[in-house]
Amino acid sequence: QTVLQGIILLPVRLISITVILLLAWLSASIATFCEPGRGLLPLEGWRRRMVQTTLSRLTRTAYFMMGFQVKVKGKVASLPEAPIFVAAPHSSFFDGIVCALTGMPSIVSRAENLSTPIFGTILRSLQPVVVSRQDHDSRKNTVAEITRRALSRGQWPQVI
């Protein structure tokens, strides 16, 4: 009977996750359409709220459809309390759960990830701090950008 459940649940889960992914892409596309500053300025107003609430809920729903139920114990630190949020060991797709639970903060990501179909658009809407492996000053530039965002007094979202 468990094999039969798996045969039925797998396509339902795959279709649901695909629909959620396409909705996340659409939401990210709308939030960044004709974006002033093209990533150099923080998203504001409805664009920022759309990214934070819609993508957070869609990500939580996607993880739920994969079979993960996450409960938060305690209180997630707010932006004024912690402009930089550290997640470790930062080595798996479970980092997405942390992002969803913390309101979709900016992340540090490789520049190559921005050109990935669908995921690149979603990632761009999170306004990542981009690291280029070809740039010799990349480490120094990344630290400077994280510091600049952390000292922006809430203009930029938290950085994870």
UniProtKB/TrEMBL annotation:
Domain named Phospholipid/glycerol acyltransferase: residues: 70-156
Biological-process GO terms, alphabetical: lipid metabolic process
Keyword Transport attached: no
Entry annotated with the keyword Transcription: no
Cellular compartment(s): Membrane
InterPro entries: Plipid/glycerol_acylTrfase
Keywords: Acyltransferase, Lipid metabolism, Membrane, Transferase, Transmembrane, Transmembrane helix
Main location as per UniProt: membrane
Pfam families: Acyltransferase (PF01553)
Gene Ontology CC: one annotated term: endoplasmic reticulum
Molecular function GO terms recorded: 1-acylglycerophosphocholine O-acyltransferase activity; lysophosphatidic acid acyltransferase activity
Transmembrane segments: 7-28
Family: Belongs to the 1-acyl-sn-glycerol-3-phosphate acyltransferase family.
Designated name of the protein: PCAT2 acyltransferase
The species this protein was found in: Nesospiza acunhae
Gene: Lpcat2
